[in-house]
Structures are given as structure tokens and as C-alpha cells.
Design a protein that fits this description.
Number of strands: 35
CATH class of the largest domain: Alpha Beta
CATH topology of the largest domain: Spore Coat Polysaccharide Biosynthesis Protein SpsA, Chain A
Mean pLDDT: 97
Distance between the termini: 98 Å
Strand order of the largest sheet: 15-17-20-23-25-24-21-18
CATH superfamily of the largest domain: Spore Coat Polysaccharide Biosynthesis Protein SpsA, Chain A
Largest sheet: 8 strands, parallel, barrel
Number of domains: 2
Number of helices: 8
CATH architecture of the largest domain: Alpha-Beta Complex
Radius of gyration: 31 Å
Bound molecules: uridine-diphosphate-N-acetylglucosamine, calcium ion
Low-confidence stretches: none
Length: about 450
């Protein structure tokens, strides 16, 4: 059966106390609404309809995509009213309702729910709660058959004792929806058009309301304030940590590890504490990551080692290569197999060939460095003249003496050497020694200036 998904995201979220629309607040670095949209996509719908209102322009701007139809709900008159705004665009046999501020629902749960919905049946996702305050309650008859949902504010004392709460997530036959929504009224405690009233209408029309239960509360929790937002963040991180451990990663402490993106891992990877993985990160077999590293949009090849306090973005660390402690690899940094980058070395758009080394305190930008070349401590590629970036090319087996300034554009041939402290402004032929520094002279018997006694 074809599927349309409607995501409600028009509410204000006053309790966030924020200039940012609630659904744009991030969980694991991605707007909550982004999580919901990604989950929706995994269900292969015909179309995803996002109902927006508060901060509509910003939400639209941030999440626009070809498969998304934004629908404006100018005034927030209730969840039923919100879904009604999307009605003209709904064509599928099944309609699934999701919420932009409920980011962690599992695809598996929604798939089970959708299996319950057909022309004669609704699928309703419920959750059993220790404290159901605020939630709509699922009202069943003596045989356990669902009759209605009653909102907390409209519920009697007896109904408030019901622990089974409405998650709001609902799958309905598309062709019935228009009729039901058209018949909603707002004569209730909140003066809103409740989507939940559809349940009693469906029952009256002879349809069955089949329920699925969420595995845990977090799966259906919405963030109304920053405390709940942090709970979702924690839960998401624990979920990711468990997933990675199940795939063969040793996490020294799963409570001190964060993923803000997509991570692909091999086996026997070890990750020390306080590591943050962002964007798209690929970690191959036997990689070791030390404590306090931030690794973004990077590839760590088989057996490579990233030592403590390193920061990587858009980088590739080759097979058996290592970097850090305190390495900074910026976009375009690429370490060949067994290459070595030590402490306080920054690479940007720079390729280190196989077995090349930059052990200490260097800046290598816009550079191509051949295999086995050794970059001495304090080497700087002067790649920027204030207007343009220039390239440094070094061949294989080059030896750069400590504290050299390599002024690009410049090329050093295979086996070239530079004397320590040189400023290299001209190409160096293969195997030549370049010395570009003032010649030392000694002044015998030099008298240092003396302090005059007071
Ligand atoms: C709703 C359900 C309740 C359920 C609870 C779960 C109704 C009437 N009640 O209550 O049974 O237990 O969720 O959290 O549906 N929204 C719009 N436009 C509107 C109103 C709401 O887009 O006009 C969006 C909000 O941004 C929010 C979601 O719908 O994301 C839920 O709205 P809210 O008013 O918070 O519903 P609840 O009172 O929590
Ligand atoms: Ca709510």
C-alpha cells in the first residue's frame, strides 16, 4: 500500500526559551526534525509532508529537499487541524503521522505499526508510562478493545489512572482521513481540534484500532524543554555506543563517547574516553583512537593510530600511520601508509607519502610530500602570500632541516636536503643541499652588556 507521511512541526516550543524553532534544536548534531525526516525516508513513502508554523521560514530553509512538501499551518489550532492542512496533498492509501520533536522513534517500530493499518484498521502507537501526566489516555472496553483517546485535561479521575498513553503516532487509511478531520470539533478543555478524536470516530464507523507498544519511553519522547532534549541526547548516544560495541568496537567508557553523524567501523577498534565522531567517519579494522580526540568527516585506515587530543577534519590517516598527540589534520590532509605526524603539527590540503614523517611543531599546507621524506621540527610551508595560495612539492627521501621556511611555489627534488633554519625560496634539485640562511660569524671575547649597580 502506498504511504504518505505527515510530520507535525508547527508548534512553538515556548519551554525551550529559544529564538530557534523547537524542531531545529539538535540531537547528536542534527535538528530533531532532521532525525524524523531521515526515519520517515527509511519507510519509502510517496511523499513526506511537514506541517510548519512557528519559525516556518527557517525550518523550510534548513530542511528543504525534493521529497519534502512543506505545508503552512498559520495558526496552531490543534493536532487535528495541523494534519488537515496537509489533506489536499495526501493521495496514498496509508497516512502515517509523526512529530518533528520526537526524534528517536525506531524504524522497526514504525514498520510494525504500518503493518497494522489497512482500510478496515488503524494502527496506534501507545506507550506504558510510570507517570502518564499530560499524555492522552488510551480508553479500552472490558474486552481490551480501544474505544477512544481522552486528553489528560479532559480526562476523568478514573481515566487519569490509565497508564497507557498516546504517543500521537498513528497510521490511518488515507481515504477516511478527510471525512474524520472534517468532523472534528474544538469543544474541549483546550479549545483545540484534537487529532486524537479520530480514534472514537473510526470506532463508531466500525473500524478496529490496533495498537503497537513502543519498546521504551525514549523512543516516543518529545523534547519540550532543554532537560528533555538532554535526555534524548544521552539516550541516542547510549544507543550508538551499544551499536558500535555490537559491531566489534571497544569503548573504554560508553558514557564518555559521542557520535554526531554516521560512523562505519571495522573490527577490533578501540576508542578511549571523550572521543567525538562527527559527520561521516570511516574507521577500519584495528584502529586505535586515544582520549579527547575530535574526528570529523575522516577516514582512518586499517591499523592506524590517532593519539590523545588530536583534531581531525576531512582527513585520511593511512594504513598503519599515526598522528598525535595534539595533531591537527584539516581538510585535505592525507597521511600515506605508515606515515607519522607528531605533536603540534598542522596539515591542511597536504599529502604525506608512505612512511613520511613530520614529528614536531610544523605547518604543512598545500603540500605534496613524497615517501620517506622527513620534515624537521618547526618547518613551515609558507603557502599564502596574502592573496593567493601556492603549492609546495617535495619528492621522496627529502630531508628538511629543523626550522625551515619553505616559501611556495617551490619544488624540492628526490633526496634533497635543506639546512636547519633555511628559508627556501628557489627550487632545489634532486640530491642537492639547500642552505638559505645567514652565515655564522663568531666574535671573540664578546663582552655582554652589564647591569649598573644602583
Ligand atoms: C499530543 C496528543 C496526546 C499525546 C501527546 C504525546 C493530541 C490532541 N494530543 O498532546 O494524546 O499523548 O501528544 O506527546 O493530539 N502541533 C502542530 N500544530 C498544532 C498543534 C500541535 O504542529 O496546531 C504539533 C506540535 O508542534 C507538537 C505536536 O504537534 O510537535 C503535539 O502537539 P502538542 O500540542 O504538544 O500535543 P500534546 O498536548 O502534547
Ligand atoms: Ca507535546
Amino acid at each position: 500500500m502506498s504511504l504518505d507521511i505527515v510530520i507535525l512541526a508547527a508548534g512553538q516550543g515556548t519551554r525551550m526559551r529559544s529564538a530557534l524553532p523547537k524542531v531545529l534544536h539538535p540531537v547528536a548534531g542534527k535538528p530533531m526534525l532532521g532525525h524524523v525526516i531521515d526515519t520517515a525516508r527509511m519507510l519509502s513513502p510517496r511523499k513526506i509532508h511537514v506541517v510548519i508554523g512557528h519559525g516556518a521560514e527557517l525550518v523550510r530553509e534548513r530542511l528543504a529537499a525534493d521529497d519534502i512538501n512543506f505545508v503552512l499551518q498559520a495558526e496552531q489550532l490543534g493536532t487535528g487541524h495541523a494534519v488537515a492542512q496537509a489533506l489536499p496533498a495526501l493521495e496514498a492509501e496509508k497516512v502515517l503521522i509523526l512529530y518533528g520533536d520526537v526524534p528517536l522513534t525506531r524504524v522497526e517500530t514504525l514498520t510494525r505499526l504500518l503493518e497494522q493499518a489497512n482500510d478496515a484498521q488503524l494502527g496506534l502507537l501507545t506507550v506504558n508510562l510510570a507517570d502518564p501526566t499530560g499524555y492522552g489516555r488510551i480508553v479500552r472496553d472490558a474486552n481490551g478493545v480501544v474505544q477512544a483517546i481522552v486528553e489528560h485535561k479532559d480526562a476523568s479521575e478514573a481515566q487519569r489512572a490509565i497508564r497507557e498513553g498516546n504517543t500521537g503516532i498513528l497510521a490511518v487509511p488515507g481515504k477516511r482521513l478527510g471525512d474524520w478531520l472534517g468532523r472534528l470539533s474544538n469543544s474541549n478543555a483546550q479549545g483545540e481540534y484534537y487529532l486524537t478524536d479520530v480514534i472514537a470516530m473510526a470506532v463508531a464507523d466500525g473500524l478496529v484500532v490496533a495498537t503497537e507498544t513502543a519498546q521504551d519511553e525514549m523512543e516516543v519522547l518529545g523534547a519540550n524543554d532543554r532537560i528533555q532534549l538532554s535526555q534524548l541526547e544521552c539516550h541516542y548516544q547510549q544507543r550508538m555506543a551499544r551499536q558500535l560495541m555490537a559491531q566489534g568496537v571497544t569503548l573504554f567508557d560508553p558514557h564518555r563517547f559521542d557520535v554526531r553523524g554516521e560512523v562505519t567501523v571495522g573490527r577490533d577498534v578501540t576508542i578511549d574516553i571523550n572521543v567525538i565522531l562527527e559527520g561521516k567517519v570511516v574507521i577500519e579494522d584495528n584502529v586505535q583512537i586515544g582520549p579527547n580526540c575530535v574526528i570529523k568527516d575522516s577516514i582512518l585506515r586499517r591499523g592506524s593510530i590517532v593519539k590523545a587530543n588530536s583534531h581531525l577534519e576531512g582527513a585520511e590517516v593511512g594504513e598503519g600511520a599515526d598522528c598525535g598527540p595534539f595533531a591537527r589534520l584539516r581538510p585535505g590532509a592525507k597521511l600515506g601508509a605508515k606515515a607519522h605526524v607528531g605533536n603540534f603539527v598542522e596539515l591542511k590540503n597536504a599529502v604525506l607519502g608512505e612512511g613520511a614523517k613530520a614529528g614536531h611543531l610544523s605547518y604543512l599546507g598545500d603540500a605534496e610530500i613524497g615517501a620517506r621524506t622527513n620534515i624537521g621540527a618547526g618547518t613551515i610551508t609558507c603557502n599564502y602570500d596574502g592573496a593567493n595560495k601556492h603549492k609546495t612539492v617535495m619528492g621522496e627521501d627529502v630531508f628538511i632541516g629543523s626550522n625551515s621556511s619553505i616559501v611556495a611555489p617551490v619544488t624540492l627534488g628526490d633526496g634533497a636536503t635543506t639546512g636547519a633554519g633555511s628559508t627556501v625560496t628557489q627550487d632545489v634539485p634532486a640530491k642537492a643541499l639547500a642552505v638559505g640562511r645567514a652565515k655564522q660569524r663568531n666574535i671573540e671575547g664578546w663582552k655582554r652588556p652589564q647591569k649598573t649597580p644602583k
